[in-house]
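Can you please make up a protein's amino acid sequence together with its fold in token form to help me picture the idea?
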Amino acid sequence: MSLLPKTYAFFFRELLLLIVLLLSSNALTYAAPKSSLVRQLPGFNGTFPSKHYSGYVKLNTSPSKHLFYYFIESERNPTKDPVVLWLNGGPGCSSFDGFVYEHGPFKFEKGKKKGDFPILYPNPYSWSKVSNIIYLDSPSGVGFSYPWLPSSDSQTAIDSHAFLLKWFELYPEFQPNRFYISGESWAGIYVPALAAEIDKGSRNYNEATPRINLKGYIIGNGVCDFHIDGTPSYLSFAHGMALISDQLYKQAQACMGHVSGNDKCEMVWLKINKVLAGLNEYAILEPCYHGYKSEETNSSFLELGRAWPNRARVRDGKVPTWRESAQSRFHYGVKIPCFDDEVATTYLNDVRVRKAIHASPEVQSWNLCVGMDYEADLGSMVPYHKDLTSKGYYALIYSGDHDMNVPFIGTQQWTAALGYEIVEEWRPWFTDGQVAGFLQSYANNLTFLTVKGAGHTVPTYKPGECLHFYDSWLQWKKI
């Protein structure tokens, strides 16, 4: 039993932690598990600019879940820079998507021939330049995490929270750091759901569990509310970008709300799907790597479904509701339409790489995305955003303006629909003297930002611009 009241005991514990941090050699990691240290990676010649760690956190579930992470210390000041968790979406996609193709510490040069081993170079726009960052494969069964199990929005949030509590036990020196959650696509569900779990946990905090110093979250081209982000936003984007005709757009508008027993409207949806089938909907100006053959556009494209629920898909004579779509579409295992995953697949399935990053042999094959038996059980995230921002958490919501998968139109609408006072009216923001996009700031520390010319995975297309707004926002500076 402590001789000090709980309040003083907590303060004394925090003071001791800060003293140890100040005394630690070079202000670097002192308690991280040595067995998790990544000493070198095949394909990279040189010394890492900061320390890398990877491995598993075992969750006390039945059966046990083993969630894989790759952690990179900040290249600037790991003891003072924030810790950021990165989550890719899907659901079912590995966060090595972000590591390899977006904002990881390396640029991967593709081999001359298919299957050639990639060459790695330092990435000048890595987010680890300015923050500590954790790439987490979640839910269980995704990437290097195992075993494959059915999951849901709510279960993923619970498991990710449990992961963080155990992770901060392994790396206690980072508990005082500001902590942020970030992610894209279906992580538009993951992120606020996880933030809500952490917030709930912080209200029940006790000294036996690590403290998660959550300050806010960042979401890129994220799913939020299927009625706002869904078919209306998709159609408005396609029409505004001259991808469907004015006539077809008007026909589709007249058919909104007709879900069954209307042959005319069913043909309208089929026409739209056929017209747009050959496009890379993740970045409409880019080529389609896994292209669609013309004879497949009336069948397999519709059966695969669009990239997420409530798009104009017809099954059994009706357009399904968002909940029906969300609960049914994640049972397939296919390549992401139009996305080139060759480099990551070649690299992360190499036995030398897997040994270097401590990947378990339980995972026989790494895939960028896997089919999930997954339930979207939380519905709209609008109430979550409202609750979190009203409690003082910072929120940055950004959109690549050439993404047709989760168009900026819906995101702009739901951020405005929170009803907050506009603090900074719509204006351009700049990188290197050039307009990089536009933003609007609201009360309660909410910012909506577009990135000009970027697709769904924004840092893939505009890495310099992304590092600029990321660093500025984390430092609470004007973008």
About this structure: Confidence is low (pLDDT under 50) at residues 1-29, 293-334. The chain is about 35% helix and 20% strand. Residues 6-23 form the longest helix (18 residues). The first strand starts at residue 37 and ends at 38.
